[in-house]
Model the fold of this input.
Amino acid sequence: MWLLRKLHTYAGLLTFVNLAVYGIVGLSVFWLRQPDRAAPVVRDQNFTVQPNLTDRQVAEQICSQLHLSLATPVQQFAIQHDSANNLLLDFRHANGRDRVTVLEAEHRIRIETSRNTLARYLYTLHETTGVFHSGDWRMQLWADYNEFAMWSLAAMIVSGFAMFLASRWGSALAQVSLGAGCVLFAALYFWTR
Done:
């Protein structure tokens, strides 16, 4: 029983930051539905496309030049062309979005930068798991922690239920708490569907 309590306590501690982010995101859903009011910052920068490069190679070169490590690896959906056949790159990352238009004939790029609000930033962290493979070590570290914290949460739930069964089954308060928790969980599940 002592080992089970230790497991439960440490699993809860390891999950705390993760649950705090999830809680803040849950409370900020209202603000996530609001459209972004800030206009993107537009700037031009000199850039010459080297001959015989693919669109992906140009995108990776621009991503590196603009220090957008959070947007790596460059996804295929981020590489497009506009109606004038200019290369259009749409880099989305935790900090926001950078839309880059490659104006090859003019030897420059036009960068439209939009920054995420705190709520959108936390939402991005909330949805990032171990399946996410970032080119940035900080985002990958968070993704791995997020995955680990979810498993720790499962361990905390299982160990808490095991402790309940082992020590408190006869307690009326424990039975009422278990019943109320199950009913509340089911109600929230069906209410949010």
Remarks:
- The chain has a mean pLDDT of 86.
